[in-house]
Amino acid sequence: MTAPATTSTTAPASLGGVAILGPEQTALLKELDGVFSGWAVSDGAREVIAPPLYPVSDLEKFDVYKNFPHLALTASPIDVAHLGDGPVASRFASGQLQGARYGLPHAACYGAYLFHEGSRLDADVLVTLVNRCFRNETHYDGLRRLMSFQMREAVAIGAFDHTQQTLERFAERIAAFSDALGLGLEKVPATDPFFENTGARALLAKLSPVKYEFQYGDLAIASVNTHRNFFGERCRITLPGSDETAFTSCAAFGLERWVAVLDEQYGGDLGKALDAVRGTARQIG
Amino acid sequence: MTAPATTSTTAPASLGGVAILGPEQTALLKELDGVFSGWAVSDGAREVIAPPLYPVSDLEKFDVYKNFPHLALTASPIDVAHLGDGPVASRFASGQLQGARYGLPHAACYGAYLFHEGSRLDADVLVTLVNRCFRNETHYDGLRRLMSFQMREAVAIGAFDHTQQTLERFAERIAAFSDALGLGLEKVPATDPFFENTGARALLAKLSPVKYEFQYGDLAIASVNTHRNFFGERCRITLPGSDETAFTSCAAFGLERWVAVLDEQYGGDLGKALDAVRGTARQIG
Question: Which residue of B has its CA nearest to A150?
């Protein structure tokens, strides 16, 4: 028994947006995920596992269908009575589908808020999770822009200072990691399309950025996000001994993008990239 | 910072089929996944990562829409022009959806076959992967029956003997693991609804079982599956130095079901279950 015939990405020939990661890409992705989740765990985070789909009623809480319905994907069963001979040209028409009560999430952190839904915290909380995220894009591009990708997140829930200090620590680590690997990531304020649109929150975001992205060229591969009390309010999470709404923040990592970036940085030598990640990670707590 | 307020499963209140696993459940699931994937790696398997959705054209290769369309879920974007005021009672009608070119897989191993699609093997292959699987069921039941769950698989591709020897090793390990944990799993021949229906394959399956399930009571939590040359044929994978179609087999583990079973076996004490898994796993190679 030996390794599979190829270690490169194999994507289905006809449509973009999906990729199967070969053994070297997989080893690198897992190592990176271990580094990022390790930072959270060393801060006292506990890991949870969230599902890759949620009832539409849950996702509605976060205004996802109001703000960016064009990016959303739903999980729709087939309407067997109207299936006919099956998909035509490998596509199900909407009339062959039942409609959808479940949606596919475009961020991983929803699971952290829903896990605490309706609860009063005992203390400041730090949670980490990795989940599959889904976005209906107008175009796809290898591992840089996928329809479904893995996002690792560290999520802080509690006092506002807790949420900000968490982000500061993560921003420092990302910068140090970038330096050690020679990535030259640039920290850039950005807007968060997933819970701001026109209105008070968007204005506030311009005055006081709530989102910073870490970019490799024009590709955002990580971000630190302040939500103020948006998710606390929508999930009815309150502070210890109080009816006051909890604050939240998250640090997020697009794992396949990190693989793509390291692939480029190390000239396609993923073994070398893996060694570099292992070597530098030890230096960064 | 402390642990989240609750360590138990939190499922959204209104609809079943999904669950967020708390820290103790997560630790146990990860430990189990480590045991099962470790068995594969010790046999020389390499790990790949497959997407949680595929073009319909890929899934059609495996007859999933012919055999069991009622179990399938598709990934459908929203038809923004026909969205109106949004979902009604948290449901998108089919007319609010665009139709679907991508489907959500109900097994993890498809990624292993697609990864080798159109290739001639250099040697017998062993691949391992874990993926989110999706099934549209008529009813759901906690962690025992979910709409989306994680399946860990070890997949053998190559000579028929290779596929059978792989399954024998896994069946022995599962039996030993069951004994060590006191689970009393029963190995039962079963039919595989996902690639047999009426016809030659189904008849052959009755004469010579292609699937054995390991059951805790009536709950199948693992299986060993012989596919003969079905997937090799559909993905055009050939044997070394030959145009002969490769054979495949897989050992599959439903990770949340293992958590549910251990929860029951250890009387709700997941810490004890975790210790037991760690202790026994060392005895089993």
Answer: B51
Query: Is pLDDT above 80 for B10?
Result: no
Q: Which residue does chain B place closest to A132, by CA atoms?
A: B52
Residue of B1, B92, B126 lying closest to A100 (CB–CB): B92
DSSP class of residue A100 equals B
pLDDT, position A122? 96
Indicate yes or no: CB of A50 within 8 angstroms of CB of B3: no
Largest CA distance in chain B: 60
Per-residue pLDDT, A195: 57
- What is the C-alpha separation between A21 and A29, in angstroms, rounded? 9
CB contact under 8 A, A147 and B102: yes
**Residue of chain B with shortest Cα separation from A60:** B90
Q: How far apart are CA B130 and CA B262, in angstroms?
A: 20
| The token pair that represents B207 in the structure block | 């004469």
Q: Which residues of B touch A116 (CB under 8 A)?
A: 4-5
| Residue B110: other Cβ atoms inside 10 A | 28
The C-alpha atoms of residue B277 and residue B245 are separated, in whole angstroms, by 39
For residue A226 the two structure tokens come to 């302040």
Contacts by A192-195, CB closer than 8 A, 24 or more apart: A192/A225, A193/A67, A193/A68, A193/A71, A194/A62, A194/A64, A194/A67, A194/A68, A194/A106, A194/A107, A195/A62, A195/A63, A195/A67, A195/A227, A195/A230
Distance CA A283, CA B48 (A): 28
Of B145, B63, B150, nearest to B103 (Cα)?
B63
Instruction: Please tell me which residue of chain A has the smallest CA distance to B108.
Output: A20
Min Cα separation B91/chain A (Å): 5
Query: Could you give the ipTM of this predicted complex?
Result: 0.92
- CA B90/CA B81 separation, integer angstroms: 18
pLDDT band of B271, cuts 50, 70, 90: very high
**B143-194: per-residue pLDDT in tens?**
999 999 999 999 999 999 999 999 999 999 999 999 999 999 999 998 665 5
Q: Number of A:B CB contacts under 8 A?
A: 290
Contact criterion met (CB < 8 Å) for A125 and B48 = no
Structure tokens at B265: 């076996």
List of domains in chain B: 24-79+92-284 (3.30.930.10)
- Give CA–CA dist B156/A244, Å, rounded: 55
